[in-house]
Design goal:
mainly alpha; rod-shaped; 2 helices; single chain; 75 residues
């Protein structure tokens, strides 16, 4: 008797994104926060050692990066 040869089994592979819609929205928010921080860092006054440029803007930028990490790790 002849043996039946079967081809490779093809499974239905569902194409699934790594991140959800909420992750992408949170990432966009974090990018906006970082952009606001850099805009604050530019400033309009001539004083280089202003509170906004030296303390507030870097804190806002770091908060935006931290929020971006949270957005990536959120499951």
């Amino acid at each position: 008797m002849a043996e039946k040869k079967t081809g490779p089994v093809v499974k239905d592979v569902k194409s699934e994104l790594v991140f959800t819609k909420q992750n992408y929205q949170l990432l966009l928010i974090s990018i906006a926060i970082v952009a606001v921080g850099f805009i604050l860092m530019m400033g309009t006054t001539g004083d280089i050692y202003d509170f906004r440029r030296t303390l507030l803007a870097p804190i806002v930028v770091l908060a935006g990066f931290a929020f971006g990490i949270y957005a990536i790790l959120k499951k």
